[in-house]
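Lecture notes, part 5. Sequence design as translation. It can be helpful to think of inverse folding as translation between two languages: the language of shapes and the language of residues. The source text, in structure tokens, appears below.
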């Protein structure tokens, strides 16, 4: 399992690398469009594409390439602080400092700034509401029990995500691993006198962090819940405690 965890760890680190190389390639391509006589920008687009592919393949292959080091080297040589960013960057990065925009950079992506989508082309369908996927059993929930379990999970959640991730090295075994206390968390929950109240407990949690009404409250900044920081952790906890009951909480619409 430690080997699987290390592979997972490598992939998590690769996700950041893939994003950084793609963003940098976009800027290099913009520079190449504006200054085609400077060959290195065209070369960097190709190199960064290869680095992104290496990062993706790193799950099944090992390469003697310092991907992060190469990206840093290319970024330094591109002198972005001097040349600035293309205009479309302000559109795809809300809150971006517009003082860093260089309007002399001409590239096809800048056409996004003038694109006005036809409202007639937009669909009024906003997707399937989350309620469709869940069966809620509020009448079977023991609120005292629910709050006790929530307190245990939130305590673990803070312990896991309240760390200074930026100061942790990528090759550290506790960078992305679940902490050793996870098994203890599951055992502590199972020690509670849950009895036949699993369905109400699980339903309460799923409704609290996934329901449409809760999402509306979150959007209006009226709802604060530590479990919202990582819904996947909650699902893993519920699955490990009792996977059969968890599956029963999902709607018959999915099982029919």
């Amino acid at each position: 399992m430690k080997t699987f965890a290390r592979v997972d760890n490598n992939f998590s680190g690769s996700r950041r690398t893939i994003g950084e190389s793609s963003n940098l390639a976009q800027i290099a391509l913009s520079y190449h469009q504006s200054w085609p006589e400077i060959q290195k920008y065209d070369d960097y687009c190709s190199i960064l594409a290869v680095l992104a592919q290496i990062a993706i393949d790193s799950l099944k292959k090992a390469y003697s390439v310092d991907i992060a080091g190469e990206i840093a080297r290319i970024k330094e040589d591109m002198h972005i602080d001097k040349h600035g960013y293309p205009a479309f960057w302000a559109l795809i990065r809300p809150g971006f400092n517009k003082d860093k925009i260089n309007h002399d950079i001409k590239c096809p992506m800048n056409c996004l700034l003038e694109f006005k989508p036809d409202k007639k082309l937009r669909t009024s369908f906003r997707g399937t509401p989350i309620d469709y996927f869940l069966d809620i059993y509020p009448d079977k929930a023991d609120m005292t029990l629910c709050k006790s379990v929530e307190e245990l999970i939130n305590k673990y959640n803070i312990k896991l995500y309240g760390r200074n991730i930026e100061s942790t090295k990528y090759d550290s075994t506790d960078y992305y691993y679940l902490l050793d206390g996870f098994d203890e968390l599951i055992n502590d929950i199972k020690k509670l006198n849950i009895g036949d109240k699993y369905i109400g407990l699980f339903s309460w949690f799923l409704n609290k962090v996934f329901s449409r009404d809760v999402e509306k409250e979150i959007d209006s900044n009226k709802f604060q819940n530590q479990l919202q920081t990582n819904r996947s952790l909650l699902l893993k906890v519920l699955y490990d405690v009792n996977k059969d009951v968890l599956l029963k909480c999902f709607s018959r619409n999915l099982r029919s």
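The translated text above is only one of many valid answers, since several sequences can fold into similar shapes. The chain has two domains: 8-121, 130-255.
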